[in-house]
Amino acid sequence: MSLLIAMVSFSLVMSISPGPVNMIIVSSGVSYGVRKTFSFVSGGTIGFTLLLLFIGLGFSKIINLYPYFLKCLAVMGSLFIIYLGYVIATSKPELDIKENNQPTFIQGFLLQWLNPKAWVACMVGVSLFSVPNSHQAFLTFSLIYFLVCYLSLFSWSLLGGKLALFLNSEFKLKLFNQLMGGQLIVTSFFLLYSQFN
C-alpha cells in the first residue's frame, strides 16, 4: 500500500507542477475553453504515458550509455518550446473563439516527447518504480501515472477556463498571452541553462 501511495504522490507532484505543457493548457483554456483544449490534454497525457513506457521498457539503458542524448533533446525541446511561447505571446487577443490556432492532440503528444521535464520525470520514475526481472510494478506505476496525469492536465484546462471569465477585454487577454508566452520562453532558457551547468 505504501508503494501505491508513493506512486500516486510522485505522479501528482510531477504532473501538477508548472511546466511547458501546463502553461500551454492554461493559455488554451483561456483562449478556446475547456472542451476545445481537451484534445491537447489527451495528446499530452497519452504522449507522456507512451514516453514513460518507452523509457521504462528498455530505452533507459541506451540513455545511460549515451548521456549526451538528453542534452541534445534538451536543446531541441527548448527551441520548440521557445517557438510555442512566441506563438502564444504574439497571438491576437480575440475574444471571439476561433479554431485556427487551437492546440491539437498531435501538438500535445509531440510536446511531451520534446519536453525535457517529461524525460527527467520518466527517468526518475523508472529508476524509482522498476524492479529487476519484473515489469509488474513499473506497469502499475504507468497506469497510475496515466490517470493522475490526465486529471492534473485537465485541472489546468479548468483553471484556464475560469481565468477566461476575468480576461474579458482584448487588453487583458493580450497581456495574459504575453505573460504566458514569456513564461514559456523563460522556462525554456532555464532548461537550457540547467543542462549545460
Secondary-structure topology with pairs:
Elements: H1 2-16, H2 20-32, H3 34-65, H4 68-89, H5 105-114, H6 116-129, H7 136-163, H8 170-195
Helix pairs in contact: 1-7, 2-3, 2-7, 2-8, 3-5, 3-6, 3-7, 4-8
Number of domains: 1
Percentage of residues in DSSP E strands: under 5%
- CA radius of gyration: 17 Å
What's the β-strand tally? 0
Coarse shape: globular
Count of helical regions: 8
The assembly state of the depicted protein chains is: single chain
Distance between the termini: 39 Å
Question: Mean pLDDT, rounded to whole units?
Answer: 84
User: How would a textbook summarize the main sheet?
Assistant: none
Helix-strand sequence: HHHHHHHH
Low-confidence stretches: none
Q: Briefly note the structural class of the backbone.
A: mainly alpha
Helix content: over 70%
Walkthrough of the structure:
The chain has 197 residues and is mostly helical. It has one domain. The chain is 81% helix and 0% strand. The protein has helices at residues 2-16, 20-32, 34-65, 68-89, 105-114, 116-129, 136-163, 170-195.
List the main descriptive attributes of the protein structure presented here:
globular, 81% helix, mainly alpha, 197 residues
Short description:
By secondary structure, the chain is mainly alpha-helical. The protein contains eight helices and no strands.
